[in-house]
Amino acid sequence: MKKFLYASLSVFLLLTACKKHDETINQLTATDLNFMMQASMENQSRIMLGSLAAARSTRPEVSGFAQQTVLAKQQEQQALLLLADELGMTLRDTVDTDSRMLRQRLSALQGYAFDTAYMKSQLRAAQKTMSLFQQEFNEGKHLSVRSYVNRYLEDVTNQYYKADSVFRLL
Description:
Elements: H1 2-25, H2 30-56, H3 60-86, H4 97-107, H5 111-139, H6 143-169
Helix pairs in contact: 2-3, 2-4, 2-5, 3-6, 5-6
């Protein structure tokens, strides 16, 4: 009888521990929420600036990079919006003030000045995005958000190296 009680108690404790672990990895933390909001704004900013650069750049390397960035960020944003919808949250469709000001500054430039300013901004943005993804990778808890990070972290890193190589060509 004691063996049965111990076995029953052990199974109960094991199931309780597993349930608490499952609840922990499926609970959105402040880190997860911040990541999703920041990633959304970064995606939208890069789409906005990439569209501008694709239309205004005088260098095929820069306009090609801009077009690739727009496509990649649109794909990332669609996946992020689907994730947010699954989690019952809404992400704002906006860019930050710094990105709007950068767009204004870039709009006033032409030729080489535009291309170098845009590519510098993309290097900074890619670094910021990599840091954001790395922080979520290290500190995030929600399984679905971490899955999104795992899916796109390599792409984000490759975007940085691509931006660096295009910038070096200028």
